[in-house]
Amino acid sequence: MKGFVFQGAGQASWQDVPDPGIKEPTDAIVQVGVVTICGTDLHILKGDVPEVSPGTVLGHEAVGEIVEVGSDVRGVRPGDRVLMSCITSCGRCRFCRERRYGQCRGGGGWILGRLIDGTQAEYVRVPHADLSVHPLPATVRSEDAVLFADIFPTSYEVGVRNGQVRPGDTVAVVGAGPIGLAAIATARLLSPERIIAVDLAPARLEAAHRLGADAVADAREAPGQLVADLTDGLGADVVMEAVGVPESFELCTRMVRPGGHVANIGVHGKPATLHLEELWSKDVTITTGLVDTYSTPTLLRMAAAGRLPTGHLVTHTFPVEQMEEAYDVFAKAAETGALKVALGGERYDVAVPTD
């Protein structure tokens, strides 16, 4: 089969790789139907995730069809259309019992495309399949469903839930890429008074408006002043960092009100300064986190009910054989306007209207 293989910092290619097989009785083999690329994959290619070894197939977000299951798998069977979660869960360790699946110590956590071969291939082995794949409602298109492998649960859990968004809050989201846009969409479920999106790219700010942001600000034009003007100088109740660079994190800490929450979602490859000399007296709560995906079943039900906008997020589609071109388009989002890219899909489409 073919897969997109990491070969070292700055190097990867679509090439022949061995077919996966069942290794443990809890495994499933999935034929990939629709797969996407994550900003974290770009971090891996830059060399920011040193635990990824050369020779690893990348990817942790996909929808596909079960083709084989191990003897202990009970929840899915060959022929089922499933979402493959970015997080794998053993279901037995201390952290899994606390629903902290991202911290799994039983052979799970974020392993696909990081510690074992991932989803950017024709077939993938998914360990602990009963807890790590989700059967899909027939009414949810695969191109929409793939967004619930990572960006929607990540934004909702690490941003909205950790940030404790409440009705009537002012919420600022710094970074209007896919994660930030999903944070805007899921924050709306909690009825904040207003959502303010901050980014450098006009196309992403337009997308933020479409997905529910009430105000947008160019990151180069004093977004903190806009937040202050809209809150009588108090600052935002919740600020979400969805970029992963020091400047955006420090901007978030300047925009939050006393007693507010800064929820860091972005993946950071460099140190950021924590200005405790300014924050120590403000009663600010700062949270970080790797997604646990405990919310995935709920979010999928919301998508099936038409309560979450997904149709604006996939901006580019490719045949899976054009993985390298898709990476190039996604990496140059400022030039191409790419939000999420989807590869494959014809075999798994279902006839439902888009948002």
From TrEMBL:
Cofactor section: Zn(2+)
A family per Pfam: ADH_N
Sorted UniProt keywords: Metal-binding, Oxidoreductase, Zinc
Region of interest: Disordered: 1-20
Listed PROSITE patterns: ADH_ZINC (PS00059)
Gene3D superfamilies the record matches: Medium-chain alcohol dehydrogenases, catalytic domain, NAD(P)-binding Rossmann-like Domain
Domain Enoyl reductase (ER) residues, every copy: 8-343
Family statement: Belongs to the zinc-containing alcohol dehydrogenase family.
PANTHER family for the chain: NADP-DEPENDENT ISOPROPANOL DEHYDROGENASE, ZINC-TYPE ALCOHOL DEHYDROGENASE-LIKE
Protein's name in the database: Zinc-dependent alcohol dehydrogenase family protein
Organism, as annotated: Streptomyces camelliae
